[in-house]
Amino acid sequence: MAIEKLTFNSALDVSNAIDSLGWFDEVNLDGNVISCVLDSKTYLEIGVIIQGQSGTGTPNVIFYTKGKGDVAGVTRTAAGYKQRYGYKTKNGILFVNNMNPGQYDDCYCWLLGKTNTGKICIAHYNGTSISTQYTAAIDETSTEIGQGMYLCYKTAYSSTTGKWLGSSQLVTAPIPTHPDTGTSFIKGALGFVISAFNGCGIVEINGVKYATDSVLALNDED
Fold first, then answer.
1. What is the pTM of this model?
2. Using CA of residue 6, residue 12, residue 14, residue 16, what is the dihedral sign?
3. Which are the contacts of 117, defined by CB distance < 8 A and separation ≥ 6?
C-alpha cells in the first residue's frame, strides 16, 4: 500500500477514513462527533469541523487511555484542530488542516497510529508551538512528553520554535509513548528535531518515504 492523500469534505469522510483502518470495533458518527470504540470502550472522540467550512461545535480530538469514564491519562488537543486533509498509510493517518500555511495561518496536525507493542495511540502538538508534544496510548497513563529542542521550520499563528531557514539538515527522533514498564514508541512515525521545510508532503529519509507536516511524519513500512 502506498501513502494515500485524503481530502475531507465532511465528518463522514473523516469517520470513513478511520473506520477503513479496521482498528476499532465501532466508529460512530453523531452530528459532527466521531466516537471510536474498542472492546466496548470509547478511546477516541473527535469533534470534526472541516477547515474552510462553517460548522457548529468545538473542533478537537480527545483520547482516553483507559477508555472514557475510567480514571487515567487523557489528552485533548487545543480547540482549533480542524480537519481538511490526511495522509493514510498502513501505520495510521496523519491529519492536517492546512497543506501550505502562510505566516498568519493556524497550523494543526495530529497523528493516529499504533505503538510498537500494538496499542492504538495518537500524537499531537500545541497548534501554535511545537515545543510541547503529547502522546496517548491505550492502557498507558501520562500523556505529555514535555518541552524539548525542536528547530523545525513550522509557520504558526503566534509563536514558532526555532526556525532554521537555509539549513538542509534533517534530524529525527522516535515519538515515545508512556508505558508503565519497558519501551514504547509510535510504529512508523518520526518527529523532526531539525527540519528545514514547511508545509505538508512526502519526504524520503534513508530510502523510506514519509508523509509529513514538517513536524510529525508517518511511513508506510511494515
1. 0.91
2. negative
3. 179, 182, 184
